[in-house]
Structures are given as structure tokens and as C-alpha cells.
Amino acid sequence: MQRCTDTVVLRILIRGDAYGFEIYNRILERTGDQYELKETTLYSSYKRLEAEGCIRSYWGDETQGARRKYYRITDKGREVFERNMRDWKFTQKPVFIFAVAFQILYMAFMGRTGRVGKSGMGN
């Protein structure tokens, strides 16, 4: 899950620098509120990505309110993002095939045991 979260953060930062809560909001916005991450998960990702040299942080110069810590993707971060996307595309098809095969086996088993209702799902 860490790699997935890191890839999502890198994807947001490819479009430009952002501060922590802004990244959180962009993730929610782009996923239709379906991918909500805990604050601790995101900040762990920021620390990990920065330690690996994938992002750099800097303090903004806000004149009102608290100063914000902004994050910027590095060249290494772009490379990691591209590699993660290639890996995801490579594994996407086998995972889909496995999921379909599992569903077929599940339906066959449930049909044999008489546990399948009208909807095709177990009762």
C-alpha cells in the first residue's frame, strides 16, 4: 500500500508544487472522494519520499496564518513515478484475469452447494 500511496502523491506533484493538505484535497477531488487517506499515512509518505530523494520540501512565504510546507517532485521522483506506472500496467492484466477466474470459480462452487440466490451471489 505504501508504494501505491507514494505513486499517488508523486502523480499529484507532477502537476506542480503543493502543500500537504492541498495534496490530500486533490486526491479526494480526482477520485470522487473514493480514495481518502489518513493524515498520518500521507505524512509518512512525504517523509519516505523525501528521504528517498523523490521529493523536496520547502517552507512557503505566506503572509497570513501558519506557514505551509510545500513539496516538489524531483527528477528521481519522476523516474520512480514512471517506473511504478509501468509496473502497475504490467500487473494490471494478470490481476484482472485472476479476479475474473476467482469470480467464476466462486460462482461455480456456490451453485454446486445451492447457495446462489437469484442475484447470482451467495445467500
TrEMBL record:
Q: Does the keyword Thylakoid apply?
A: no
Report the domain of life of the source organism: Bacteria
Q: Name one Pfam family in it.
A: PadR
Family matches, as Gene3D superfamilies: Winged helix-like DNA-binding domain superfamily/Winged helix DNA-binding domain
UniProt KW keywords:
Membrane, Transmembrane, Transmembrane helix
**Looking at the keywords, is Membrane present?**
yes
Q: Domain Transcription regulator PadR N-terminal spans what residues?
A: 9-82
Coiled-coil region(s) at which residues? none
Its transmembrane ranges are: 95-114
PANTHER family attached to this UniProt entry: PADR-FAMILY TRANSCRIPTIONAL REGULATOR, TRANSCRIPTIONAL REGULATOR RV3488
Q: What is this protein called?
A: Transcriptional regulator, PadR family
Give the organism, scientific name.
uncultured bacterium contig00088
